[in-house]
């Protein structure tokens, strides 16, 4: 099977693209990458251990080959043990492979496959009601396993499996984690069925080869030899032995660097429905790796642009599709774009590997370290403080809302308070939307109820806002987005607006032994991210919804429409 076909159309950035390619060649970046030369990136951002292990992901194709037999045997053992359902806890960035299996409706050895990506109580309860816990297998992929959401879910599900009558609930769990991690310790403590280990030292977003490989080989019955052959061929094509003008990773790296350094940093990903999760994997890799110190690429997936003119305002584009699918790229040939066409899902692990190499090289040109997330920790620390308030004082100490109208409360903090009207909810939102620039974007950070009808209405609202404001608008689900592109909003290029939506849960579900509920945890993580963005002077407002979801959403839709009309009157 041939490798994926990559076509780069730099458009107005042709000269800059060639310049970045020339920089890669003159700096011998490809050879230095494969020689594990960490001087390619700013040394002051590297870890205290000197970055040992940061590039171990380059060896993952070898681990895929070594692990494939074990993964296949494990999958057969799972079926023989009588499991009928499999739930992938897709809380961290390591878990996007699972969603792809579900979205493509791939064969899964007779297992019914579910993905749990949010901890909001209504969605958690809805999934729980579908499961027979005795015959449900839970898969957890996390580099460390230390994040609050993963730990809370693990405690809850272990208790559920035990209450179903199993004396050894750990037999229903499999972990995919790095050697010696906290999650591997928990797995041993609770006697998990198995632990699939990967090398230490690198971020989860660079684990694509092994995570996609495990899912395809283990659950989806793909021929491991075919997958490994394609990955090995891609590695050879991206090596220093391939001339730079023919090297797909180098060509892509130069494109990414060009859009990052010329104001075309809003990279719009387009794909068919079946590849939407794969596109999201690339969004996470490119965005979290490049967005540091006000630099980088703001990747956007799941957006709706009714007016093609929005793309022409300093946007770039990436199209991913299977061979034979209709073209979805923009008609304007001057818009910088890259298109990737794959023959089948067997290509995905190899394509992710190429993007990991290209992104690392692009970051060397941009001047940022792709292996750190310097703006991630502050929000988590604030969230822990909010959780401590709940467990100790049984309440949250938060600022009073700026405005309250019906079931909606508006929160604005920091310097933004001087720019947002306090006359009415309508005028407050209108003045917030007026802060957008032509080169900006809008992120709807959605912590609302995890219900299908809520998701549908929030998607429609996001589309409406993007069309009326004339900027790309994206709906991202919290707290999951924190692991995927939260770094972009706090550390990437400025110009974006963030509208955070939180809510009162419809049901209280306790985290066993923790002293707080899942609803408390969701709100604490939202507030922590809100505080981190305010401290970085990133424009963000929060709307909190109470009462019945349908009624609160109607009020939100109404107030947003009024704000948009007010903005049109001013112009």
TL;DR?
The protein has helices at 14-26, 29-34, 60-80, 96-103, 121-128, 148-163, 182-189, 208-219, 224-237, 248-260, 276-290, 348-366, 377-393, 425-433, 452-469, 481-484, 486-491, 518-535, 549-570; strands at 5-9, 85-89, 112-116, 136-141, 173-178, 194-198, 266-271, 298-300, 315-322, 337-342, 403-405, 408-411, 441-446, 473-477, 496-503, 540-545. By secondary structure, the chain is of the alpha/beta class. α3 packs parallel to α8.
CATH class of the largest domain: Alpha Beta
The portion of residues forming beta strands comes to 15-25%
Rg from Cα: 23 Å
Our count of helices gives 19
The CATH architecture designation of the largest domain is: 3-Layer(aba) Sandwich
Report mean pLDDT, rounded to a whole number.
89
Approximate helicity band? 40-55%
Looking across the biggest beta sheet, what order are the strands in?
A: 11-12-16-15-13-14
Overall shape: it is globular
Sheet of most strands: 6 strands, mixed
Low-pLDDT residue intervals, each spanning 5 or more residues: none
Which structural category fits the helices and strands?
Answer: alpha/beta
Q: What's the number of structural domains?
A: 3
| N- to C-terminal distance | 55 Å
CATH fold annotation of the largest domain: Rossmann fold
Number of strands: 16
């Amino acid at each position: 099977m041939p490798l994926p076909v990559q076509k780069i159309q730099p458009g107005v950035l042709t000269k800059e693209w060639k310049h970045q390619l020339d920089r890669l060649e003159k700096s011998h970046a490809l050879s230095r990458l494969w020689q594990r030369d960490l001087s390619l990136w700013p040394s002051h951002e590297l870890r205290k251990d000197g970055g040992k292990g940061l590039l171990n992901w380059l060896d993952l194709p070898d681990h895929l080959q070594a692990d494939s037999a074990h993964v296949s045997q494990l999958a057969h053992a799972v079926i023989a043990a009588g499991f009928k359902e499999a739930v992938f806890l897709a809380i961290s960035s390591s878990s996007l492979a699972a969603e792809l299996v579900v979205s493509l409706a791939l064969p899964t050895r007779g297992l019914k496959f579910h993905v749990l990506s949010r901890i909001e109580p209504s969605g958690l309860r809805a999934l729980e009601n579908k499961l027979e816990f005795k015959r449900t297998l839970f898969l957890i992929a996390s580099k460390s396993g230390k994040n609050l959401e993963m730990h809370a879910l693990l405690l809850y599900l272990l208790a559920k499996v035990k209450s179903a009558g199993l004396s050894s609930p750990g037999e229903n769990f499999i972990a995919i984690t790095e050697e010696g991690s906290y999650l591997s310790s928990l797995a041993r403590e609770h006697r998990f069925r198995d632990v699939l280990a990967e090398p230490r030292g690198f971020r989860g977003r660079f684990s694509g080869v092994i995570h996609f490989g495990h899912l395809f080989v283990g659950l989806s019955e793909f021929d491991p030899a075919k997958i490994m052959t394609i990955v090995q061929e891609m590695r050879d094509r991206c090596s220093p032995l391939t001339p730079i003008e023919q090297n797909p990773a180098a060509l892509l790296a130069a494109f990414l660097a060009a859009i990052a350094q010329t104001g075309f940093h809003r990279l719009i990903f387009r794909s068919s429905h079946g590849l939407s999760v794969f596109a999201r994997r690339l969004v996470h890799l490119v965005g979290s790796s490049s967005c540091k110190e006000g630099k980088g690429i703001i990747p956007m997936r799941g957006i709706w642009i009714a007016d093609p003119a929005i793309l022409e305002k300093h946007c770039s584009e990436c199209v991913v599709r299977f061979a034979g699918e209709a073209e979805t790229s923009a008609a304007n040939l001057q818009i910088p774009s890259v298109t990737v066409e794959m023959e089948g899902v067997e290509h995905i692990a190899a394509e992710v590997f190429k993007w990991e190499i290209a992104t690392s090289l692009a970051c060397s040109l941009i001047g940022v370290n792709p292996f750190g997330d310097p703006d991630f920790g502050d929000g988590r620390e604030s969230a822990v403080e909010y959780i401590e308030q709940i467990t100790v004082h049984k309440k949250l100490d938060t600022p009073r809302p700026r405005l309250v109208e019906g079931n909606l409360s508006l929160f604005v903090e920091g310097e933004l308070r001087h720019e947002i009207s306090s006359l009415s909810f309508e005028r407050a939102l209108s003045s917030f939307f007026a802060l957008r620039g032509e080169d900006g974007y809008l992120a709807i950070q959605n912590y609302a109820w995890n219900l299908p009808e809520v998701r549908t209405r929030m998607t429609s609202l996001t589309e409406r806002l993007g069309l009326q404001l004339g900027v790309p608008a994206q709906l991202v689900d919290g707290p999951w987005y924190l692991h995927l592109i939260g770094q972009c909003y706090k550390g990437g290029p400025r110009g974006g607006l963030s509208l955070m939506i939180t809510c009162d849960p419809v049901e209280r579900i306790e985290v066993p032994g923790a002293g707080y509920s899942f609803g408390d945890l969701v709100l604490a993580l939202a507030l922590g991210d809100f505080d981190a963005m305010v401290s970085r002077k990133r424009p963000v407002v929060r709307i909190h919804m109470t009462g019945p979801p349908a009624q609160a959403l109607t009020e939100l839709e109404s107030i947003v429409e009024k704000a948009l009309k007010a903005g049109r009157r001013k112009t």
